[in-house]
């Protein structure tokens, strides 16, 4: 029996990882084609091995990628295909605009050092990865009617990659790329930033590249403070631990900081303890600027509706709040102003909201 969607109107998603949103069937196909061993022979078995049902630590979650990334990374056909299929997936979820993020370096090769698999098609550069993903996204946008942009990730454990990432952001600004991100295990090295990341974000700011940062998911509020004050981020990936410092939280609310909230993810990664109030409940009460997102639906065995069902069923969210948070997501997107206003007009019409009441404002509602 098909479950009734928690919110059946157009949605905006700002925080989802391409390499965490791959169809199991596609992983199996390229594993077989490239002769790369996988821990299962059927899509269902593979989904159950990769997928998570109970909370685990962030490092344990990140280790899940090792099961399947070798089947995809470094393969031109696979990289383009997962981007195309991603757009199809989001169209089925009722998403009208999405920003998808990924590490060009990890999709070029799933390990830091080259590994000896099928070298004929396993030798992509990060630059080629961005070109292929952009092609796949553009073809998906054409075929499925979802507007898609991409965000390139720096990785906390590889600061030497970050300057190349920002240069790729600059190069591909006209081909889907709208921003830079910092992802990975935020608990490493006491969560302090490496010089390479700071330099990359300084260059991004100077070059007009938008900026978001994973911060305050699994580590303390100090990581949020670094993201805001050192990296000059415009949005926070997760950001739950911001609430540990009321002064900082109030400051960020006044500055209209956008929190990219991933409720189901936060449960399964242990970023949120169910016996406590979820940060998103506080965000809702305070009318803060935030969105709902899937993060890594392959690993969490979820769709965007999972997050909407969770907040509606367990936290009392209403259609009016869903409308508000999606309008704020559109306003906090990294689209140019003209395209942002077109997206907002689409939402206002679908939600039955007079556009004249809000269209001129980029402030959250």
TrEMBL record:
| Class of the enzyme per the UniProt entry, highest EC level | hydrolase
Subcellular compartments: Cell membrane; Cytoplasmic vesicle lumen
**Which membrane topology describes this protein?**
Peripheral membrane protein
Which co-factor is required? Zn(2+)
User: Which regions form coiled coils?
Assistant: none
Hydrolase in keyword set: yes
Q: For this protein, what reaction is catalysed?
A: 2'-deoxyadenosine + H2O + H(+) = 2'-deoxyinosine + NH4(+); adenosine + H2O + H(+) = inosine + NH4(+)
Instruction: Tell me which domain of life the UniProt entry assigns to the organism this sequence originates from.
Output: Eukaryota
Keyword vocabulary terms for this entry: Hydrolase, Metal-binding, Nucleotide metabolism, Zinc
UniProt keyword annotation of Ribonucleoprotein present:
no
Question: Pfam families from the xrefs?
Answer: A_deaminase
Domain (Adenosine deaminase): give its ranges.
Answer: 10-349
The EC number(s) given in the record are 3.5.4.4
Entries under InterPro entries matching the protein: A/AMP_deam_AS (IPR006650), A_deaminase (IPR028893), A_deaminase_dom (IPR001365), Ado/ade_deaminase (IPR006330), Metal_Hydrolase (IPR032466)
HAMAP family the UniProt entry points to: A_deaminase (MF_00540)
Q: Which family does it belong to?
A: Belongs to the metallo-dependent hydrolases superfamily. Adenosine and AMP deaminases family.
How is this protein named in the record?
Adenosine deaminase
**Lineage of producing organism:** Eukaryota, Metazoa, Chordata, Craniata, Vertebrata
